[in-house]
Amino acid sequence: MQHSTKDPRRTLYNNPGVNLLVISCSYWYRRKCG
Prior knowledge:
single chain; mainly alpha; elongated
Protein backbone atom coordinates (compact mmCIF):
# COMPACT_ATOMS: atom_id res chain seq x y z
CA MET A 1 0.00 0.00 0.00
CA GLN A 2 2.22 2.75 -1.31
CA HIS A 3 -0.39 5.20 -2.57
CA SER A 4 -2.52 5.59 0.55
CA THR A 5 -4.81 8.57 0.03
CA LYS A 6 -5.45 9.47 3.65
CA ASP A 7 -8.34 11.90 3.79
CA PRO A 8 -8.58 13.13 7.38
CA ARG A 9 -12.21 14.14 6.97
CA ARG A 10 -13.14 10.67 5.71
CA THR A 11 -11.39 9.09 8.69
CA LEU A 12 -13.18 11.54 10.97
CA TYR A 13 -16.61 10.71 9.64
CA ASN A 14 -15.88 6.98 9.65
CA ASN A 15 -15.26 7.25 13.39
CA PRO A 16 -18.58 6.35 15.08
CA GLY A 17 -17.92 8.57 18.11
CA VAL A 18 -17.22 11.62 15.97
CA ASN A 19 -20.21 10.80 13.78
CA LEU A 20 -22.44 10.72 16.85
CA LEU A 21 -20.97 14.01 18.04
CA VAL A 22 -21.66 15.66 14.67
CA ILE A 23 -25.23 14.34 14.66
CA SER A 24 -25.94 15.56 18.19
CA CYS A 25 -24.33 18.93 17.45
CA SER A 26 -26.44 19.48 14.32
CA TYR A 27 -29.52 18.33 16.25
CA TRP A 28 -28.82 20.83 19.04
CA TYR A 29 -28.14 23.57 16.50
CA ARG A 30 -31.46 22.91 14.78
CA ARG A 31 -33.33 23.01 18.07
CA LYS A 32 -31.63 26.22 19.16
CA CYS A 33 -31.50 28.13 15.88
CA GLY A 34 -34.22 26.40 13.90
